[in-house]
Design goal:
Structural class: alpha+beta
Subunit structure: Forms a membrane-associated complex with FtsE.
Strand order of the largest sheet: 2-3-1-4
Distance between the termini: 22 Å
InterPro entries: ABC3_permease_C (IPR003838), FtsX (IPR004513), FtsX_actino (IPR047929), FtsX_ECD (IPR040690)
Membrane topology: Multi-pass membrane protein
Subcellular location: Cell membrane
Protein name: Cell division protein FtsX
């Protein structure tokens, strides 16, 4: 009988404040969707770092014939065969180096044409303009400075470039987007909490006569508060379910269907469905508990029991 009464009171409260309940559901859904999206973005960045940092190389670009007048490091002229042999031998002696691959000007030109052949600038590039280089694979990509210190400024070396620096710019941009999503999520969360508190206030005020009678007949504080708390929790749970649907739909649309980024960007290791599914219980738990706790604190002030 008590459970039936509590459920009936929840239904009455939701019907009386239908508009505000709808606003709570929408704001909770959006804030939790942004929260889940931020978590997935962080995991995606971590996955990409693990994937790409394991593949990046350190490139040691050698001086070419036309670099003496334009590149300060190549003032002594183009790299000689002896210098190339010495560089390769010294690289082989370094413990941090896993593998060394030499790339000639012709090979560099071929790779450039494969990647940027459709660019208008591609027709103006000739093989002799492409620098020779050593592609160095490290056991630990973070040890780049060991190679840079050993070979930067050496005769025949034009520059030493760590490909990680290019990736760091990309990951920095993605992390910035993640922070922006978290900021918007926090703003939406504050709005949702304010709506929940106001909804509970209105609901408690509209039923002040019933709660007064319940006090007089000796009803416990929990028995009086339970319908209001469960109304907020129910609205939050619906918002959490909608947030889960948005996360699942977003993962499918962006990666598998619609945009199909997995097919278009097959060089990127995208997160799988398991990463999304493991975040859903957390989203649902927050959607259920956050409104209930907010309602409990609101009732302590606005519903004296």
């Amino acid at each position: 009988m008590r459970a039936q009464f509590v459920l009936s009171e929840i239904g009455v409260g939701l019907r009386r404040n239908l508009t505000m309940t709808f606003a709570v559901v929408v704001s909770v859904a959006l804030s939790l969707a942004l929260f889940g999206g931020a978590l997935l973005m962080r995991e995606q960045v971590s996955t990409m770092k693990d994937y790409w940092y394991d593949k990046v190389n350190v490139s040691i670009y050698l001086c070419g014939k036309g670099d003496a007048e334009t590149v300060v490091q190549c003032a002594k002229g183009a790299v000689t065969k002896q210098q190339k042999d010495e560089i390769q031998a010294d690289l082989g002696k370094m413990d941090v180096v896993e593998k060394v691959l030499y790339e000639s000007s012709d090979e560099a030109y071929k790779h450039y044409q494969e990647e940027f052949g459709d660019s208008p600038m591609a027709g103006n590039i000739t093989p002799d303009q492409m620098p020779e280089s050593f592609r160095v694979k490290l056991h630990d990509p973070t040890k780049y400075k060991v190679v840079a210190t050993a070979f930067a400024g050496r005769d025949g070396v034009q520059s030493v470039q760590d490909q990680r620096s290019i990736l760091d710019n990309l990951f920095g941009l993605m992390n910035g987007m993640n922070v922006a999503a978290l900021f918007v999520m926090a703003l939406m969360l504050v709005i949702a909490l304010m709506l929940i508190v106001n909804t509970v206030r209105v609901s408690a005020f509209s039923r002040r006569r019933e709660t007064g009678i319940m006090r007089l007949v000796g009803a416990s504080g929990f028995y009086i508060q339970a319908p209001f708390i469960m109304e907020a929790a129910f609205a939050g749970l619906i918002g959490g379910v909608l947030a889960c649907v948005m996360l699942l739909a977003g993962r499918y649309f962006l990666i598998d269907g619609g945009l199909a980024l997995q097919d278009k960007l097959n060089l990127i290791d995208f997160i799988g469905w398991d990463a999304v599914l493991t975040k859903l219980p957390l989203v649902l738990a927050i959607g259920l508990l956050m409104p209930a706790v907010a309602a409990l604190f609101a009732l302590r002030k606005y519903l004296k029991v």
